[in-house]
Amino acid sequence: MWVIGSSILALLMASVALFVRMRAAKKPATVKKIILPPLFMSTGFLMFLYPPARVPWAEVLEAFIVGCVFSLLLIRTSTFEKRSNDIYLKRSKVFIIILVGLVIVRIGLKLYLGQQISIEETSGLFFILAFGMIAPWRLAMYFKFKKLQTYSEG
Asked: Closest by alpha carbon to 3, among 112, 124, 128?
């Protein structure tokens, strides 16, 4: 039951992420808008203060690496463009496909792993995977943004 509920929640979160991404493309990008989401998300690490959510370090590393691999797709499809005097995130039709694909893979992994380990450990692993995906993606976006900003000014 928890797996189904959390899978539905993952679909809703992906829908919200897609909606936010489409709205963000209509407004100029800023360093703050790029960097703050992973900082806010990092508060989720507090879940590991709850002993049942703790996972072995090897699994933490595996989940983070898988997240980093997934982030490569997001990094590749996130580009900026200069319009007037502002920098905007370019819309990408591929982003939608990648996001849906990542959600499907995530749900599949969760269904499989949910049979092997507790829901708390599964939640912790998928949080680490998500952080491993978002942090490098946003860091890459920051560098792309700064590069275009520097190029535009110079």
From this structure: 112
Beta-carbon contacts of residue 140 (< 8 Å; ≥ 6 apart): 71, 75, 78
Give the count of domains, the chain. 1
Domain span at residue 38? 2-153
Which DSSP string corresponds to 19-46? HHHHHHTTS---HHHHHHHHHHHGGGGG
Ordered per-residue pLDDT tens for the chain, 154 residues: 666 777 787 778 778 877 877 777 789 999 999 999 999 999 999 999 999 999 999 999 999 999 999 899 889 988 999 998 899 988 777 877 877 787 788 778 777 877 788 888 988 988 999 899 999 999 999 999 999 998 877 6
pTM for the full predicted model? 0.82
Contact criterion met (CB below 8 Å) for 53 and 44 = no
**DSSP secondary-structure letter at 87?**
E
Using CA atoms, how far apart are residues 53 and 128, in angstroms rounded to an integer?
11
